[in-house]
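User: I'll paste a sequence; please echo it back and then give the predicted structure.

Assistant: Echoing your sequence first, then the prediction.
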Amino acid sequence: MARIKLGIKTPFGSIEVSGETPSEVLDALERLDQEFLAEINERVSALLATQARDDLKGIVDIGRDGPVIVTKKRLSHYEAIGLILYSMKDHQSSSRELKRRLAASGKKVTVPARLHEMRRRGHIFKPVEKAPYYKLSTKGVKWIEEEVLPQLKKK
């Protein structure tokens, strides 16, 4: 008899469950409880956070109060905001906190105007429309990882 395979997409990747019979597949699915998935998600997130910190070394310093841009290279206002958001938990922050982190980095940025323009470009979005929080979009994360960080790492 053919083996039965079932693929499940999760935020951190995919999990494959297989068995010889439908009941074996169902038994395997029962063992995949919320606790197990939450634990995997937490561990993968920790690994990704460590990798992100390594990628930001010499560019953004993450202290107790939050991230501070430390690179000596010139940054556009968009890049500065993007780097701060990229280094924040869940790539999300309030406009007030962004302004504080940029000021601590020595950057004078008109935050509301830049956030509006970044929203139009698709680099950020508001998870809750009425809330003052902004989050990097998938396009924004890709922009930081593929364009901004490589440019800053060049010697």
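The chain is about 50% helix and 20% strand. Residues 39 and 48 are 14 Å apart (CA to CA).
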